[in-house]
Amino acid sequence: MDNLKNFKKIDSEKITMLVLCIVFLLFPLIASAYDVLNMSYFFSMVFLSMSLWLIWGLTGIFSFGQTAFFGVGAYAYAMISMNFNNNTMTIVALVGALVIAWILALLLGYFMFYGGVNDVFVGLITLCVTLVMATFLAQSAGSQWKIGSVLLGGDNGINNIPPLSIEIGSIQFSLVGTYQYYFIILVLIGFYLFLRKMQHGKMGYSFVAIRENRERSQLLGYNISLLQTLSFSFGGVLAAFSGVLYVTWGGYISPSAMGISAAALPVVLVAAAGRNNLSGVMIFTVLYYFLSQKLSVSGSEYALVILGFILIMVILIVPKGIVVTIFNALDRLFSSRRRRDANDTASDTKQAGTY
Amino acid sequence: MLMTQQAILSRQELTDASDALIELSQVTRDFGGLRAVDHVDLTIRRGELRGLIGPNGAGKSTVFKLIMGIHSLTSGKILFNGTDISEMPTWQRARLGIGIKMQIPCVYGELTGYENMRIAAQNYMKNNEIKGEIERIVELIGIEHLLLQEVNNLSHGQQQWLEIAMTLLSNPDLLLLDEPVAGMGPEETAFTAEIIKRLNENGFSIIFIDHDMEFVRQISKKVTVLHQGATFAEGNINEIESNKEVIEIYLGSDSSEGT
Hints:
The complex is a heterodimer. Chain A is mainly alpha-helical. In chain A, 71% of the residues lie in helices and 3% in strands. Chain A has helices spanning 2-8, 12-30, 33-58, 66-84, 90-113, 120-138, 177-199, 202-212, 214-219, 224-250, 260-273, 278-296, 302-317, 322-334, 337-344; strands spanning 146-147, 150-151, 165-168, 171-174. A two-stranded antiparallel ribbon of chain A has the order 1-2. The two termini of chain A are 20 Å apart. Chain B is an alpha/beta fold. Chain B has a domain at 2-97 and 173-180 and 204-258: P-loop containing nucleotide triphosphate hydrolases (Rossmann fold, 3-Layer(aba) Sandwich). Chain B contains ten helices and ten strands. Chain B has helices spanning 2-13, 60-68, 90-96, 113-121, 130-141, 156-169, 186-201, 213-219, 237-242, 244-252, and strands at residues 20-31, 34-45, 49-53, 75-80, 83-84, 98-101, 174-178, 205-209, 222-227, 230-236. In chain B, the strands form two sheets. Chain B has a six-stranded mixed β-sheet with strand order 6-7-8-3-9-10, with helices on both faces. A four-stranded antiparallel β-sheet of chain B has the order 2-1-4-5, with helices on one face. At the A-B interface, helix 8 and helix 9 of A face helix 3 and helix 4 of B.
């Protein structure tokens, strides 16, 4: 019955996401191939913000390490796919990259959370891991640094990474251009629906309980370390998936994708959008990459400057996050009924005061 | 003093220990150089309602925290239902059936009352039972009006109610209530006493901590007095109240405490 009420309750967030979903599913029909290609890139990066929403926004683990797993996914995919040098093996490379990232995230999570590390120290440890990884890869320029036949390439990174290929019967095609676009957006919609469902289910509430008060949650029978490790490792997989999509899109990865400014970017994006709200985080990420590309035409890094300015404004004026505040304002504007509705049932519809 | 203590303690030994729900034996906890809990023995039988009293700093809340595993034991042993839980992590003890209401209301302030209760319930029942169970408990305590509000907006007393309700949702074998009526008015206190008695009649074993002797007398026949971390006296409420040494340590040290 709760679910039914939830479903009936229309708000600006749901309408926005539905409209965006339809628009972007039809996007390749109306836009140029160049724009479609760019959108694929923006959507690839959304998975990175999604991973941070999961572990920070939902579970309350503050991590700078998402770009490390992004890099692990990207490098692992490059290594596996280029060593096999066979298009049909790219799916294996995708799965392999995700498994490697998952195991690494599980290990790092295990040592942190079972070791009782929490809060700001998780941020520090994950930042260190990220920087160590970036520094190590940056100095791997010599010919002695290779895995199989593929050179790590130091600061120059790896080029000519093959795109994903799918083989159905005798038909084989590469996921490039519009195919890649649809692959990414369908997976994105799938993950979005899955995570939203999870958020309002048992697992979601367990994560929220940990975010809100760890001591209390222990007393209610929650195994904090296990749940934190689970969330962190799944976040690592999502970030690695983002990395794989990125390299299959551009065919290129370098250590700068893990550097300190790259590591800070998802944190800033998620914080500015409103870290509790998945839809907001996704929308804001796409907006940022769109804006940053438009501005990059005029040279220099204006987008970062603007983002920094937005973040300061958000902290001062709308601490809940910019997109979340817009959602709330729209809800108040368009339905005076909504407030009464929210009193019909508080069940599951209002999580953590985000909407 | 020793004589009285022994006389009262020996009465305890006559009770049958075979249906003990929880047994603390020689439980000790040091904080740095300070011994907060000093070789405490405490046995609660199934279905018992026990008051734990004593002046400030007597170690009452620390005993609760040792039972829950929030603090580890320096030495001693805790048996729950015959299982040694001394080394068990807190969450496992909670799953075994020990529920606690902390001294300071400890709830999820950013969430609604319903969400608080959902989080409290979901580890102990199937998803489709949660709603019915919450409704049952809420009706029992009479806090329907709190369900839809953000908990930060509730009064101190209301948060206490909510926390008791959350603790009940796990249907614990043993219920630890740390000052259940702190911050409540006389009517609310009487109502709480009524609820606690009713819960006990329904089979909950309860240990509670309180300063208010009037309240303790209302609900409990048997009390344990802690003083400076050690068991000072144990027995029937009437005996304890007429015990001069108890009165002395309890009221004498700080008379504002006893009222």
